[in-house]
What we know:
It contains 15 helices and nine strands. It is of the alpha/beta class and 384 residues long. The protein has a seven-stranded mixed β-sheet with strand order 3-2-1-4-7-9-8, with helices on both faces.
Amino acid sequence: MWCHRAMLRALRPVCRRSSSTAGPATPVEPSSSAEPPPPPAELPPRPHVPVMPAEVCSLLALRPGDTVIDMTFGAGGHTERLLESVPGLTVYALDRDPSAFARARRLSAEWRGSGRVVPLLGRFSELPRLLTEAGVRPGSVSAAVLDCGCCSTQLEDAGRGFSLARDGPLDMRMDGQRATDAPTAAQLLAHASEASLARIIRAYGEEPMARKIARAIVEARYMLRPLRTTGELAQLVRAVCQRERRDKLGRPAHAATRTFQALRIFVNDELNQLQAGVAAAHGALRPAGRLAALSFHSLEDRVLKEALQASPLSEEAGRRHRTGRHGAALCAPDPALLPPAQLKRWRPVNRRVLVPSEQEVAHNPRSRSAKLRVAEKCGGEEEL
Length: 384
């Protein structure tokens, strides 16, 4: 997005430094005079539950023997439901997280014979190359599933630095140690300017107090107490915000939720990767092949909505192409003569965005903000 590549270039020398030189983490004292809250208690891990699996399986309209790409394998929830619902599927399981890749390899061994799971390790932008190396021709895949955001297994692992509920190092890299030249969240907080931090937190977290939070983070540096753990950052943001917040279900929400989201999105370049993922899915799918995309916050949903819109041409613009000055019908323009941006790429399957049922939200609260969009790839003879 706006500054991601430039800031990565600035932080690259920092990323190459050995993390072994870092001293022990020092807690940051909040500037508020109020009594700081106790550190978050360690919670037992919750089982992974895929979001809206029945809707995804139904709307993809798969047949026995089809080929599917699970573009965000994670804990394998959607892949397993697809394999159980349609016999003989081949699922190419993509994930940028090495631990998810290891889970995909285990699932591949379990399903050998009744279905195929082909693990792929990489980002959305690397999918075309990975499919070519796996022998998959462009335009031959039946369907794809894209589940944005963090996997529950990443949130449950304190060492990954994604969770507010579990104190751990401020890492937040979905690629783990594989991302050698990407900054950790701790390196970003230690070296980015106050103005850059404010823009990141405001743009990627939609946080109204971004400027105050950025100033507090920089002040912590001047106190020679850089933030190194999730608990330290959460405590600092909570001291800055102070006011109680609530989620969409009316439950108390942590004040640092949006800040954590912003740092995670920036560190992993998620929105640019999401755009690349939709383009990669389009190239891999056959005509009328379907993409089911799940988003969990407005930034992701906005990218998906724009990428999956039926046509860049408005209905009025389309009428002007088809009628003359006095309303006489004209031939539709030759697609070969129009710029590619004016051709339809996707046709929506569900006209309205789907959301989880009340029963699913009660069973799996993490699904409460999910939105499902399903679209199919337009063929070569679609109208303009």
